[in-house]
Amino acid sequence: MTSVDTLIHAGWIITINADKAVLQNHSLAIKDNLIAAILPTVEARAQFTATEELELTEHVLMPGLINMHGHAAMAYFRGMADDLPLMTWLNDHIWPAEGKWVSADFARDGTELAIAEMLRCGTTYYADNYFFAEATVDTIVDSGIRAQLCFPIIDFPTNWAATPDEHLQKGLALAVQYKGHEQVMVSLGPHAPYTVSDEPFRKIVAAAEEHDILIQMHVHETQGEVDDSIKLHGKRPIARLKDLGLLSPKMQCVHMTALNDDDIQMIAESGSTVVHCPESNLKLASGFCPIDKLQKAGVNVTIGTDGAASNNDLDMLSELRTAAILAKAASGNAEALPAHAALEAATINAARALRLEDKVGSLEVGKWADVIAIDFSELESLPVYDPVSHIAYATSRNQVTDVWIGGRRVLAERELLTLDAEAIAQKAKAWQQRIVEARNV
Ligand SMILES: [Zn+2]
Predict the structure, then answer these.
(1) Which of 48, 89, 262, 289 is deepest in the core (most CB within 10 A)?
(2) Which CATH superfamily is domain 67-353 in?
C-alpha cells in the first residue's frame, strides 16, 4: 500500500484535460500538495492508505475555478449604487466613495470578505485590481487562496499613490518581493486606455519586459470609450494599445465589448487573453463581448466576475453560466460556448493566461492539488446524464461543499477552515455602519 495525504472517492471527476475526460467512480489522491493519482475507486482502495479519506460518491470533483477579474475589497461597496450606466456609476458613486474610504485597513478587511465568498463558491485563484495590494497579501496567504495582484496605475492621484510613477514604483517593489511565490503573483494593472496616457503606458511596457510580469487592463468596456479614443487619439483603443506595444501574450484585456473585425484580428495575432465579465457588462449596460467570434479567431477567452459593486456577487458558477447563455444570444448561435468550453474558460484558459497551465486549471497528476467538490445528491441535480452540463447550467454555489488548494483543505462541508466567518461578518457590519453614518452627516 502507498500512503498519501488525502484520498477522495468521487462520483465523477471532470478533469478538464486535453481529452475532456469525465471519469465516473474514480478517486483522486493528494500527496505533498500535488495530485498524486487519479484512478478507478476499486483500484484506489486497493493501492492507497491515506491520512484523510473521504467518501464523496455523490459529488463531482473538478479543478478550482479561476476568477480572472475583480476588485476584491469592493465587496464592501456591494449594493451601494445600482441601476446606473458605467460612467455615472464611476464618477458619481464609486470614485468618491473610494476617495473617502479606501485605505490599507479597508483593502485588507474588504478583501477578506471577498476571499471568504470566493472560497465558498469554489474559486481557488483570483485576479485582483485594487489599491493597497501590499496590505492584502497576508490575508491571501493565510486563507490559502491564490491571487494575481494587478496593482493599479492611473493618471490621477489616488489614496494609494500620487502619480503614475509612484503607482508603478510601489507596485514593482511588490513584484520583486513576491517573484516566484506560489500563492501571490504580482502583475501590472493599468486602469484603462481612457485613464492612462501614452508616457506611463511606455513605462508599463518596459516594466513588463524587465520584470517578466503580466498586464491586466480594462479595455473596450463601452462604445463611448471607443468613440472618445477616436476623437482624442485618432484611433480605436486596441489600435492605440498595439502601437504602444501593449498587445502581447502577457496582456489580459478585460471586458472587450464594441469590437470590430480589425480589433479581433489584432488581439488574435498578439496572443493576448480576453477576460469576459458578462454580468458586470449586462448590469452596467456596457455592451457585449463577442466571445464566439473571438474563440473562432483563436483568442484565449477567460471569465471574471468583476467587483461586487457591479455584479453584485463573486459567484463564478453563476458567471460561467451567464457567459455560456449570453454567448448564444449575442451570436445568434446556440452552439456558441458549449458547456465544456464554459468550464475551460473558468479553469484551464485562465491558467494559460497566468502562464500556469502546468500547475493549475485541470485535474492531472503532478499539478497543484487545487480541487473542488460539488454535491449532486439533492433533487435539484437529478437525474445526472452529464455532470458537465449540470455545472454549466444547473448548479448553484451552495452545492460547493469542499475546497482544497495545494492539497490544503480550506472548505469542509461549506465551513471555512482558514478564515473566521464570524469575525469577517462583524467587520463587514462595522464598516457598513461607518459608511452609512458618514453618508447621513
Ligand atoms: Zn473591473
Answers:
(1) 289
(2) Metal-dependent hydrolases (3.20.20.140)
